Amino acid sequence: MIPVSGILKVLKKADPFLFLAMLLLLTFGLTVILSTNPEAFGRQILFALTGLSIYIGISLLDYRLLKHASIGFYLGLLGLLGLVFVSGVVTRGTVRWLEFGVGQFQPSEFSKIAVILVLAFLLKQNVGSRLPFRAFLISLVLTAVPVVLVYFQPDLGTAIILLVIWLGIIVAAGIKPLYLFLMAFLGLGTLVPLWSVLKDYQQKRIISFLNPALDPLGSGYNVLQAQIAVGSGQFWGRGFGRGTQSHLQFLPEHYTDFIFAALSEEWGLIGSVALLLFFAVLLCRVLVVARAARDDFGTLIAVGVFSFLLPQIFINIGMNLGVMPITGIPLPLVSYGGSSLWVTMMALGLVQSVAIRRKD
To answer: Residue 91 — φ and ψ, nearest 5°?
Structure first.
């Protein structure tokens, strides 16, 4: 058992701005959920307290102990992703959840941590040098397996996040410019055939993103209602509990995918800017930790967490504003949900662990 004095000594080295930004964002989410869905608020409080325990526990753990455990964690997650297709819970036509005891959890969320750890372990020797083609190829395969499993659940949003995590880590590890050029070329070449393998609802989401007015009561409904909610908040917002779009049930998923629109309606531009400011502080501190890490394994973990958070924030807020297609990606620390919140706090706990053991 670690003595209390030892725990306090370790925590004194923690990054306070990282912790405070996380806590403020968590408070934003809880406040909006309390306003728009009081029944879910109690569950989210429980998720948040559990997440804080996970965050503190991982912060106290020396991240370097996870180097070899990362492979086992990765293989275990692949097994769970495969199990989803066998005994997963069907929700709205998708199979993403597994039952455990009295609740459910989403293995695809935890695959983000697994990919970050296994890629950081694989590529830790390459930071500062050119990434060998063999390491590049292995990293691509290790990422492609969970991406395919997640995509066929289907969960296109999480599959995209996994690819962005891989891209961020290989860039930090020192990928050759030629490889980036080839990836961009191949990516553009797959756009047309990719359209044909998208599910019908995914195609409709893209079409409604380009022109939501084509089907205002169908595929374009969510986007239009979110834009109305954001605009109606104006500068100061309507006030706590006074958001008509969410309280009158016009705005769908107002405490999950579209929680930013609900927040903007009640807190206005001033609240939205404050939220973005806290996200900016959080992301900046993650990059500071990456730069000051004791070793390359820590650097790549922090870069992977940054590459996981940034696109989720950008995509979620973008789809609330109507500038990104709807993908069902939650807003980190703010949207309702246990799996997403736990994974985000687990990731930030890893960054805090790297910060505590940074270079002196």
So the answer is: -135, 115
Per residue in 133-175, pLDDT tens? Answer: 888 899 999 999 999 999 988 888 899 999 999 999 999 988 8
pLDDT digits (tens, 9 = 90+) for 194-211: 656 666 666 666 666 655
Q: How far is CA 226 from CA 34, 167, 182, in A?
A: 19, 31, 38
The pTM (predicted TM-score) of the whole model is 0.91
Amino acid at 134: R
pLDDT of residue 5: 59
CA nearest 60: which of 354, 359, 312?
354
Exposed/middle/buried for 167, CB within 10 Å: 0-12, 13-18, 19+? middle
User: At a CB cut-off of 8 Å and minimum separation 6, what does 33 contact?
Assistant: 40, 41, 44, 255, 259, 336
Residue 234 phi/psi, 5-degree rounding, is 50, -140
Tell me the two tokens of residue 80. Answer: 């769970």
Question: Quick one: which of 283, 305, 298 has its CA closest to 115?
Answer: 305
Name residue, tokens 């372990």: 121
Q: CB under 8 Å to 334, separation ≥6 — which residues?
A: 25, 26, 28, 29, 32, 259, 260, 263, 275
Cα(82)–Cα(101) distance, rounded to whole angstroms? Answer: 19
Q: Which residue has the higher pLDDT, 92 or 247?
A: 247
Contact 355, 15 (CB under 8 A): yes
Beta-strand pair 94-100/103-105: antiparallel
What pLDDT is recorded for position 134? 87
The three-state secondary structure class of 35 is helix
Cα→Cα distances 185→4, 112, 199, 298, Å: 55, 26, 24, 31
Q: What is the overall mean pLDDT for the chain?
A: 87
pLDDT at position 124 over 90: no
159 closest CA partner among 170, 144, 169 = 144
Which residues sit opposite 94 in a β-bridge?
A: 91
